[in-house]
Amino acid sequence: MQALRVEKNKATVRDVEMPERGPEAIVRVLLSGICNTDIEITRGYAGFTGTIGHEFVGIVEDAPEGKLVGQRVVGEINAGCGECELCRTGDPRHCPKRTVLGIVGRDGAHAEFLRLPLMNLLPVPERIADEHAVFTEPLAAACGIMERTPITTDKNVAVIGDGKLGLLCAQALALTGAPVLLIGKHPENLRIAERRGIETATAKNAVGRKREFDVVVEASGSASAFNTAVSLLRPRGVLVLKSTFHGTTEINAATIVVDEISIVGSRCGRLAPALDLLKKGAIDVDSLISEEYPLRDGAMALERAARKGILKVFLRP
Amino acid sequence: MQALRVEKNKATVRDVEMPERGPEAIVRVLLSGICNTDIEITRGYAGFTGTIGHEFVGIVEDAPEGKLVGQRVVGEINAGCGECELCRTGDPRHCPKRTVLGIVGRDGAHAEFLRLPLMNLLPVPERIADEHAVFTEPLAAACGIMERTPITTDKNVAVIGDGKLGLLCAQALALTGAPVLLIGKHPENLRIAERRGIETATAKNAVGRKREFDVVVEASGSASAFNTAVSLLRPRGVLVLKSTFHGTTEINAATIVVDEISIVGSRCGRLAPALDLLKKGAIDVDSLISEEYPLRDGAMALERAARKGILKVFLRP
Description:
Two copies of one chain form a homodimer. By secondary structure, chain A is an alpha/beta fold. Chain A folds into two domains: 2-140 and 268-316, Medium-chain alcohol dehydrogenases, catalytic domain (Quinone Oxidoreductase, Chain A, domain 1, Alpha-Beta Complex), CATH 3.90.180; 145-265, Rossmann fold (3-Layer(aba) Sandwich), CATH 3.40.50.720. In chain A, 26% of the residues lie in helices and 29% in strands. The first copy, chain A, contains twelve helices and 19 strands. In chain A, helix 4 crosses helix 6 and helix 4 crosses helix 11 (271-279). Chain A is globular, with a radius of gyration of 19 Å. The N and C termini of chain A lie close together (10 Å).
């Protein structure tokens, strides 16, 4: 089968072996989405070699005891050991022995078929189109912010980054009723948020709002956004880091101590609530779809997805 | 009067004008303590010019309406505007217009006399010796950790740094009943914690305890301790930053996102609970006293305080 592989920091579509039938489910991928993490992996992030991709919707082709076979599913990307305390309580996201679809020790979703434990799969309600269902994983990640810091209506929230992740975060946060400001640099992307009633600003215009925000979400993937984010926070404010990227960031630790700021990392969320939001049509994902390519053009699609202003790029096997 | 002044990154004891009588209280300093922040100010931290020092015990010489005159006091170092929302709720610590004793816009405590608003002063119970009362401010800062992140008996806590701040933090945290490990490099300092039943380790020995801790407190004032601290944290753990120092720290933001770590700045605490702990004799501060000098030898005392392994150095006017 075809798969988009990263080997030695180079992405190419190659013919690889089909995943073998075994204790895990086999899913035929209908559609996959390119995440910035995929692009960062080609730059060395996570040191991963193999098939990339972790946003998908597909049909279960094979599974233990025939469960879910024939059903359309999305999947939790962290596959735990099943034995540690975290896994036993149903949350493999921080299992120390976990593999992660297309990121750590497990081939991913930019392929004709993928493998995941049966328990990682969630059936997709019929009324959700493939093009929406594929947003379940990144939308869950956006909703995961609320697992890490409480967002209440009295909190002033800013999101930095008008890419696909920032637009999902801003929309998910706005559903709490808290006032949200999206800071970005692409007028056409900012308009997507504005149509949902979200206030927007350019970084230049946001400068005048220093020390106004209780929570700032960094979703731009740019190391330089860190200091902007800190400057927008009021004392004892919370900076949520959403983007994973390769490399280091220089911080002024004294500012964090003096203003008693909290910096909170946020990665994966829960799929079920995200799927529910998509079913309700509560999030505009249609406007986030930029381009679609056949899987065989995966390497080129990755390059397209890395361009400024481009939002979600799909691959169709 | 004599005062230890920092001007152009150089500390010298000079003769300066006495503080004038006015709307604030005037305190005759009995004893002041040298904090690492004083040393960092001589290296450019906070860009402060003036009399340094913010840990003191003294006698009120003059005050509006004669209040507290003749009483022995310690003082909250943040002097707010008195008008903003924070000040009105009795917490000037983050007032945007605040001055800070010996750190921001206000001459400090390494002097014969200092000035502070009357409301910043707390009478010291008779049974607390001067040499203990002078620890009120740094002990309050140690207790301030609990304002920033909950410490419960089921939390595994590590403190990095066996200097005076680390030893106060470890003791204050241990009073919660949570297991505390103090990581340091000076056997004689580690023994102070051991005598209070606190487990200790060298950094080398702590390496084997990666990902074991729910809360790690960085109190060593060393930028390189940051990565050690992160490595000791379990996923979703909390790193508390206590030290203010001049310069920047390089962090790997992806680790913070992937392990969903929180980094929490902590600065000043409340004086009253700290004074209460000192009254109860709940904290061993005697062992933290290294040396005492007359105020006129302040510049030399600062150099002594900066030496490795030296704990609290007092100045007596």
